[in-house]
Amino acid sequence: MLETDLKQQLVERFHKVNGDHPMTDADDVYVSAQFVVLEELCAVHGRDVDTVRRLMLGQRLPLPGYLRSDGAEMVPADLFALVDGADGVDLLEAWFTAHWADSITGKAEWNSYLSGQYVCLRSVTPSTIQRKNYLTAAIGAAANEPDAGSAQWSARLHALIDELDTLEPAFTAYDRLRFGGPTSRDTCIDDMRARFPRP
After folding, report:
1. Alpha-carbon distance 55 to 49, whole Å?
2. What is the C-alpha separation between 59 and 110, in angstroms, rounded?
3. pLDDT, tens digit, 9 for 90 and up, residues 80-94
4. CA separation (Å) from 138 to 131, 159, 192?
5. Which residues does 83 contact at the CB level (< 8 Å), separation at least 6?
6. Strand-pair partners of 66
7. CA separation for the pair 161, 193 (Å, rounded)
């Protein structure tokens, strides 16, 4: 299969998953600062870009996180780190899903990982996914805690928010289009800090 055919198939799969939203100049600047071009990453790691595209299309590696407006497939710099940690792409799914005690949850997280939409984490690993899920749930539930509003409660809340802040990047306007609303940074970090200022 020709490289252009593989790349076009990947573009089509990306739009099927994310919708067809325009990337602005500001989106491109953000993505270029946070992610790397697939071809460049493959060159650095000695990997064949067409083989990697086939793995993405075969749902064995995640789709690119973004398509820049010039068509560049943008991926995280540590895209191959999990493959190495699992001792190869053939073992990646089993290694990944084994991090969840519940196989149904593990499979659901694997499918989310393959979508390429885990752009909500600076580094995507099973442990950071689990931690982000814990933190967003805890922050969301904080207002209903019995001691809500107390100094101790505020300290706990802001410790959770600060930790989530270290895990999550800034996001860009394109993310709010494809996710159909505010990001977890909007709701769990920025909004919560505005709603419950530090004492």
Report:
1. 10
2. 10
3. 999 999 999 999 999
4. 10, 11, 12
5. 61, 89, 92
6. 74
7. 8
Q: Over the stretch 2-40, which tens digit does the pLDDT of each residue have? A: 556 999 999 999 999 999 999 999 999 999 999 999 999
Segment holding 52, helix H or strand E: helix 49-57
- What phi and psi, each to the nearest 5 degrees, are found at residue 125? -135, 160
pLDDT tens for 98-121 read 999 999 999 999 999 999 999 999
| Those residues with Cβ within 8 angstroms of residue 161's Cβ, 6 or more apart along the chain or in another chain | 139, 188, 189, 192, 193
Strands 66-67, 36-37: pairing is: unpaired
Token duo for residue 116: 């390429």
| Tokens linked to 140 | 């969301």
Alpha-carbon span 47 to 5, nearest angstrom: 19
